[in-house]
Structures are given as structure tokens and as C-alpha cells.
Amino acid sequence: MKRVITFIGVASLSLVLMLGGCGTKAIPTSSSPQSSTVGTPVYKRTEVITSSDVAKKLLDDGNARFTSGKTLNKDLSATRRMDLEKNGQHPFAVIVSCSDSRVPPEVLYDEALGDLFVIRVAGNVVTPVELGSVEYAVEHLKTPLIVVLGHEGCGAVTAAVQGGEIPGSIGSIVEKIKPAIDEAKTSGVTGNDLIEKSVDFNVQNAIQDILKSPIVKHAVDTKESKILGAKYDLDTGVSTWYNE
Ligand SMILES: [Zn+2]
């Protein structure tokens, strides 16, 4: 389907408001928090993305905007929320990422309401619970792209590498990460390199866990969906693909 991105600048918005009495429906701003953005472009996606390549490009473009400090002013208005409720969600990417507060997918990919279906768990591990969420997006929402997003300096991976006493239920996450550490150790790296190498293998293991789902496997085999790994750099803000 045709890709349409709507930008409403102050000039066009003023025109719409002026034409309000002529049968043109103006977007309400006075009763909405969105009113603070009048005078700057307002962004919302108005098409359904079905191509994984297009979805990947959207993430690349969004991350480029984020790292260059030129993020879009999103439409967070009540009108937009009602529109999404009425017409349903059509996110173009599933993002499985770490819970780390420095790695929020909607922010680092500069996306808006309804764009991303996000599953966040410390260490971006995939258990049957996370997998069920991925399956829902692929099966019911027909989301064309699945991304497992690891990141530099992951605390969960670091804890798993360091070992020792693990309190509470954190151990269940560490156990899930351990195979990646064993794989990383085979390359002979130590210290911080071992942590980063473990992050890399942990993403690949999560991808393999997701592909164990017959629902996802079928979607990938029939090219309805694609699965990729990416790594986020904490200080540069850059998201880099693994699978290329
Ligand atoms: Zn992390």
C-alpha cells in the first residue's frame, strides 16, 4: 500500500481552522495536550506497512533522526488515540529489547503511537511468555519485521558473566543468558570483550528461540515476516544490524 506520512504545519493548520465553517473538519487542538505543538510539524503514520524491507528502512531512518537530534514531532493528540482505537493497531515491527531504561525502542527508532509492538525484558531473553507476544504480533497483527535488540553494556548479561550469588528471580534471566556466555568464551575473549561478545550471542540465541515457534517459522519461510538482530550503542545512540 502507498506510504503516506502526514505533516501538518502551522500554515496548513491555520488554513484548516479558517475553513472550518466551510464544512472542513479541523483537528481539535484547544482541548488536547497536542496544542503545545502547534507551529511545528505533527507526524502520524496513516498506512499499513506489509514489507519487511520497508519496515527495516523505517527503523534505519528513525534511528538516523534520533542520532542526529532531528526527531519528528509525533501526533499524540486525543484525535490520534481515538483513530488508533477505532481502526486498530498495525505496528510495522516487533521489537524484543532489554528493559534497560536507556534503550527505549520508540525513542531510539523515533517512532510514534501504533508503530512498534515492543516486548521488553531484562537481557532481551525469549521464554514462552515473550514468544507468545511475538506470535500474537505475527499471527494477528501481520507485523512484517521482528527485531531482537541487544545493547552495549547490558547489565543482565554482565551479571551473568560475573556470576556469584543471584537473588530472587533474577536467576531465571541469568540462566537463560548463560549459553551465550559459554559460546563467547570459546573465542577466548575476556573482560569487557567477553560481555560484549556474550551480548552478541545472546541476541542470536533469542532469534533461534523465536524461530522455534511454528507460527513465526511459517511466517518467515513464506516471507510474510523477517527476523533480524540489532545492537544498540549506548553513547552514540546507533542501532546496528547483525545479520548483514
Ligand atoms: Zn540490558
Overall description:
By secondary structure, this protein is an alpha/beta fold. It has a single domain (48-77, 88-241), classed as Carbonic anhydrase (Beta-carbonic Anhydrase, Chain A), CATH 3.40.1050. The protein is 43% helix and 14% strand. The protein is built from nine helices and seven strands. A five-stranded mixed beta sheet has the order 4-3-5-6-7, sandwiched between helices. Strands 1-2 form a two-stranded antiparallel ribbon. Strand 6 (226-232) and strand 7 form a beta hairpin. Helix 6 packs across helix 7 (170-185) and helix 7 packs across helix 8 (191-211). Bound molecules: zinc ion. Zinc ion binds at residues 98, 100, 123, 151, 154-156.
Helical stretch count? 9
- Compute the CA-based radius of gyration: 21 Å
Strand content: 5-15%
- Main beta sheet: strand number and arrangement? 5 strands, mixed
Query: Based on CA inertia axes, which overall geometry fits?
Result: globular
Distance between the termini: 27 Å
Roughly what percent helix? 40-55%
CATH level 4 superfamily:
Carbonic anhydrase
